[in-house]
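To whoever is covering the structure queue this week,

Two jobs came back overnight. Logging them here so there's a record in the thread.

Job A:
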Amino acid sequence: MSWGFLRDLLSGVNKYSTAIGRIWVAVVFIFRLLVYIVAAENIWKYEHDEFECSIRQPGCENVCFDHFFPVSHISLWALQLIMVSTPSLLVVFHVAYRENREKHHNQKLYKSPRHIDGGLLCTYLISLILKIGFEIGFLALFYKLYNGFKVPRLVKCDITPCPNTVDCYISKPTEKMIFLYFLGATSCLCIVLNLSELSYLIFKYSIKRYLKRYTKKHQ
């Protein structure tokens, strides 16, 4: 898969984001997308081939691998990257709708099509809530599937067609565990940034509404 589309999407969203949103884009692009492409993809590339069991019973190794790794780390991480980035499309589509509406009516309808207010503010807040939800959901999924971000060196398997309890060995467990911790840390950082931006926008909107009412009342 070419990640150029995701890179272009993040770069495009950067134009409509707040300062905190731009930090989030930088974190996703540098600490997640680039790390995924440059390093993580290579570490898990041959995880099935490097998974070895102490018996050569036909089918045993495959069944044990599927049991301990029901979903590939790398596939799940790629899905997470896509899912946490796509809510930003809502903002891009809303800005495009505003620009097209102004063009259709041939007059200025908004202070600026890219200015975060009114309907665009609601869309932006919804996109932040979706990002937070996806981040938390994937963290919980990783934690449940992989026993709390742990990658053991040795796992014991007694699933049919294995004739008895079989020792299976996972390659590069320490390296894989470091990247899982890195994944968890960057996800938590993104959650904090999204929550900060959400709080900032709600606070800013509340202050703006209060000042507007205060001014109107004293006039």
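Job B:
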Amino acid sequence: MSWVFLRDLLSGVNKYSTGIGRIWVAVVFIFRLLVYIVAAENIWKYEHDEFECNVKQPGCENVCFDHFFPISHIRLWALQLIMVSTPSLLVIFHVAYRENREKHHNQKLYKSPGKIDGGLLCTYLISLTLKTGFEVVFLVLFYKLYNGFKVPPLVKCDVRPCPNTVDCYISKPTEKMIFLWFLVATSCLCIVLNLSELSYLIFKYSIQCYLKRYIQKHE
């Protein structure tokens, strides 16, 4: 698949992000998107062909592969990348709405359409919450689907039409597990960055509102 749209999306939202948000964009682009395209995709490219069971029963190998890999790691990772990036569209759409509104009224309605304040602040906080939620959901999915964050070299399968319990071998298990842990680490880093940015924005604008009310009260 083409990742140009996702790259452009991340580049676009970078203009309206805080410092922490720009770090998040860099982590997603360099340590997740580029790693996926350059390395991880090739590791899982022939995972079905390289999955072997010590039995020649027709259909046994296929059902065993489906049993242990209901969703491919790499496809789930791709879906995760898309889902955690798309909430940023909310911010871009809101900024576009502001710019279009200024053109429609032919006057300056905002100090800067991309400044995080008012309604755009709410949109930005919602996008951060959604990104964090998606990260957590996908980490839970990885953990549940693959029985923890591990890739064993040998799995035992007794699913029909296998005649008995057979041994099945996963190719490059150590390499796959390293990338799986890398995926988990970058997801956790992104969650920390999202929560830090969320806390920073809430704290910053809470202080601003308090100071504004304090000044008005003592004028």
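Note for Job B: The domain at 3-217 is CATH 1.20.1440.80 (de novo design (two linked rop proteins)).

Please reply-all if you pick these up so we don't duplicate work.
Q.
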